[in-house]
Amino acid sequence: MKKIVPFLLIFLLSFKGMAQSGTNIFGKDPIIHLENFQKQRLYFGYFLGFNNFDFKIDYKDLQPTDIEVTKSTGFNVGVVADVKLQDYIDLRFEPGLYYGKRELSFPGFTTQSDRLREVSSTYIHFPLLLKFSSLRTGNIRPYLVGGVSSTLNLSGNSKTKDDNYEQKFRVKPWSSSYEIGFGIDIFSEYFIFSPSIRGLFGLTDELIRDNNPNSPWTGNIDAMKTRGILINFTFH
Question: What is the rounded distance in angstroms from the CA atom of residue 185 to the CA atom of residue 196?
Fold first, then answer.
């Protein structure tokens, strides 16, 4: 999460600059931009953003030595289709490409080649979300968003027969999650800028166990599920 903070600061500085440049978002009696845009039944957009993925690991042993997960910041890009259900509720589909990387450090090994496993993930992410918007105030409109998602991992080594004994860490190609978060629509003269932050919480076990049921890498893992923080900057 610390690596995401600089991007949030960049956003806040950009937002401050936009407000000072005459957009007049928060001023008294602002000029109302794109007043009828969100009255459309269907509209589209695209997003760019950042992610920080983690693993939630449950163990069979009640007192295990935890596997350490080192996270890094990845990127997101995708498109948005928004269907208006009523004045304050929209159904949103946001298919996108998400790239992230995690490093797992397993206890009990003396050599780095056995102890460390890098899990690079290239996700095709399919979230179906409900967006609950508040009343619009001037040129801003906060909202809450939540829903479910399915994710295809293109780099999970799921088809290989090799396992951790050959230094191959494997995860299943498909997983499902639920997501919840919040954001704000900012109406400029020509487009809507919509930054948001969401938490992603895995529902399904993603781990493919080693062929040896007593494997020191996977034998004590009861379930391994992705969780993460998603920050997207959407343009309509």
Answer: 9
